[in-house]
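Protein 1 of 2
SEQ + STRUCT:
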Amino acid sequence: MITDLKYPVYPVLDVDLAVIKENAQVICTLCAARGITVAGVVKFSDGDFAITRAYADGGCEQIASSRTIHLERIKEADPEITTMLIRIPMLSEADRVVQCCDISLNSEESVLRRLNEAAREHDKVHSVVLMQDVGDRREGVYGRERLIQLALLVEKELKNLYLMGIGASFACVSGVLPDWDNLSDLAESAAQIEKLIGRKLEVVSGGSSITLTMVAAGAPIPSKINHLRIGGAIANPIGMRVNRGVVIDGMREDAFKLTAEIVEVGEKPSPPGGSRKNWSGNIIEFEDKGVRKRAIAAVGSQDIGDCSQLIPRDPGVEVIAGSSDHTVLDVTESEREWKPGDTVSFSMFYMPLLQCFSTSHVAMRF
């Protein structure tokens, strides 16, 4: 990640931290009205601490990521931040997990036992949230009886682990959305576990950003659901609006702007002139619109992944196609006279944003 910009460097991602903080405040306030706290997920930013700070200052109770290395950096920068690992820990990283993660999501007995050993070795008590599969078929124990067995194991035997709560995931693998029925399944599991251990669970985590479809709509949610893990919907709510129809008053979509330099402009026929199998082996169909003015931006899949997930800020510019190093634009309808050396700016969906932070080819300007 390039951040020391002493001369023009493209492509460059501009990051408005004030917008991210404001969005976090809006989401946390919305959720608090339903008795729900928020873990702010910063995995898209490669664990960037400036973005972490904006989430924390915006009211997120924990800072979460799927990568231990992110949480290590965050703990080093501010040991007071409560960190949550949202991917099931690998056995091989158990020692690192108990040192940099205050909380981890879990579903495997062998991993829980190893975390307990590691926590004992470091004289720590590590908090765990047990995941239940209530439909999406990603991580989580399938079947309430087994979930209860694991909960009792943690509560009664694994003395260096603290059973903080239970949770579930939605819409990550199979597209199963949260609803009253599957959230009630999770809530009932929590109630049964609480009865057996004789205390309330601190966390019943009812999913991620996708559960905002219910929160924002004012849909009924079981009262035991008191926690969500929210990332992209805070920093970059475009996807929730476009893909899920969720519009939340006060949320802004201008926290990120990707700018790339134009390297070629010219008029060309819109359909290809030969074989239509592209560099990745896909056959792409192009509508014949006649001769069009095209511009090529020096940004490609090595920088941002799928160029079709870019949203030109100039309404007269359209993304046509891309390769590893180039994004082809139709600029015929733009009022601007494009030439090499000009720059073009984009908003973007979640995956290109994640890719920007994961590569060394995109400069950052905070």
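Protein 2 of 2
SEQ + STRUCT:
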Amino acid sequence: MSKKKIIIAAVIAVLVLIAAGIYTYIAFFGETEAHTAEIKLNGEVIHTIDLRTAPDETFTVESENGWNAVCVQDGEIFVTEASCPDKVCVNHGPLHSEYLPIICLPNKLEISLK
């Protein structure tokens, strides 16, 4: 491999790493203007919540696959408990970005900001 090809490959690799870093920063730390949470079950919207005006509450979303306890508190939405084995949805924490929804694959639940 020539020096020119190595330099081009290195520049491309650095650009990819920079793009991934920017995306990660925006997804995890970027402020969003979205304040409407959309809850989907099996791909269908079952509930829409305006987080600016919603009262604090906890409710259960049930499907044939299991259940998820969803909590709306202080303008945030998150899953507190779930019947799924891995608890990825519970460990996600509050939803802060429209780029990183809460997903529970076993129960086919998705919570996203719109």
